[in-house]
Amino acid sequence: MDKPPHPFHGIGRIGSWSDWPLVALVRRLARSPSVNAARRGFRRIQPAIDMALAPWRFVGRRFGQAMPKGLYARALIIIIAPIVILQSVVAFVFMERHWQTVTRRLSAATVRDIAAITDLIETYPGATNEQEIVRIAAQRLGLVVSIVPNEPLPPAAPKPFFSLLDSALSNEISQQIGKPFWIDTVGKSNLVEVRIQLGDKVMRVLARRSQTYASNSEIFIFWMVGTSLVLLVIAIAFLRNQIRPIQQLADAAESFGKGRPIENFKPRGAREVRRAGATFIEMQDRIQRQMEQRTTMLAGVSHDLRTVLTRFRLQLALLRENDDVRAMRKDVDDMQRMLEGYLAFARGDVDEPSRNADVAALLREIADNTRRLGHDVTSSFSGDPVVNLRPGEFKRCIMNLVTNACRHGSTVTVTGLHADGWLTVHVDDDGPGIAEAQREVVFRPFYRLDEARNLDESGTGLGLSIARDIARAHGGDVELTDSPLGGLRASVSIPA
Fold it and tell me: In the chain, what are the domains?
């Protein structure tokens, strides 16, 4: 007898999924007229749904913008908000139920006293007896009772919203006394007035609110505020110790990125934060070793190449002066300048420490040196001139930009501004400028425009690249825009 095929036979073959009954059923349902009609209907109502949800989305965006952006504040909200909300809900539910029970019992006791007085007045009528009953009610029950003949009950007033006392008193009077009545629980803050129709006269009863109603909102508010403050103090003390290591790690990373020395940094805090701090220290050590190895290698290459170029110069000096020798000497000088430019770009003056420098004097020095070469350069500075930076690197950055501007413009202005925690230096010229589409491309190493706009004095095409690298090493950047003089503006911005 042949065995029936296995129900899952063939599922491993390519293309066999479409043969499954479940897949075929899903495909048929997806192509059914009812599903297509539902899709078309949803597309028709989609604009209405988007319009209805637009206010909620707007509120959500505004709420997100209003929320704090710092980790410290967000962590406080995450810890405090759920606890306070949960505690408020729990305390309100349990305390409200407790006060409801107490209020009903107090109202029932007060109504029993009023019912007893009503029975006595109806059982022993007479002015003398009524006066005695009024005296007993005042002395023994704490109720102010008066009998007013031929006075109708006032019209029913609207009941206050969420009045527990009004509903409790009304229910108890209806059940225990069963006569027409009128109550006022809001007219007098400390008293509750009850009027009961007794035939042709009305009995007025004034009771203290504390006899009929129990609520302690002050304790509830004090409890909520007190516990919230305690939670807030504990959370602040705890989170401050947890956030401080993260801030120290961020400060250390920022100082390392700007080339400043990192002092007294040790991994602290939670295990994950300590791990991140230890990883940062290892990364710092690897980068410093790599930079030291590169500096050593470049120093060796520089020494060897300078030795070769020196021999070339000596050999050319021994030759008779002619046009070929002068051309060779010029080539050697160009090689020397290119070599210095390549080494400066690769080395980046990484060994220079940061210190306080007078940027205004540095800009004046650059302008004076450039004017000696026959260029029209002026400088000015606003704000505190003392800024913590690497002066040698920063001077090279500005000098590259000024030299680049002098090559293509007849007038160059250097303007410095130190304000709002930033040092900004603008180098403006009146030259032809650079097209906006090429202002980012010219920062590439060795990139040259047709007019060789980004060539430095070495002719290597590294002037703008070196300037941007130096600015970014200080935590800033270099941007190119239109100059008020009609040419190009190079703006250097670094935090200070």
Answer: 1-66 (no CATH), 69-263 (3.30.450.300), 266-347 (1.10.287.130), 355-495 (3.30.565.10)
